[in-house]
UDP-glucose 4-epimerase (Oligella ureolytica), 189 residues
Amino acid sequence: MYVLVTGGAGFIGSHTVVELLQAGYEVVIIDNFSNSSPLVLSRIEEITGKRPLLIEGDIRDRALLDDVFKQHEIDAVVHFAGLKAVGESVQQPLEYYDNNVSGSVVLFEAMRDASVKRLVFSSSATVYGDPEEIPPVCQHRPEPLDFEITYKSGQSGAHYAKTSDTDRIQSGAESFLRKTHPSRVYARV
């Protein structure tokens, strides 16, 4: 089974790639290295003994995505490609919209056309804010302002995936609070 991991060279993406490889999946990474380094591939290989296929590029490049889906039998997509700094997103809303929303739509359209129906859509733990105490994520409600900022984008992606004949969408892959988990593991698949 081939899994495409967008943003797979980033922190959360690379940890997910390690888990996928160790679980026996074939992994294809698409990353534009806007917030990561190609050096992560060597580290993934050191940990797993396997080097995932890397395609340097941007999820907004529809021709690239079409080629990836044609050349590889992708069964599922784990979508981590996105800008993530809340403060910066307020200063540069159009750049964030273009990258995060438009990029996701391009990806979802390419998935639809390639009949790929399995998607893990990762959100941000930022919607939960800083907890007063350390409860499980599911018991801590999102802060209204942060939630409002990210909710509409997530809903748009979920609606698009639903209307695009997508089997399943998992908003915010199973995650751990970034400041509390001792191993600094941020997500697992």
Notes: Residues 93-113 form the longest helix (21 residues). The chain has one domain: 2-151.
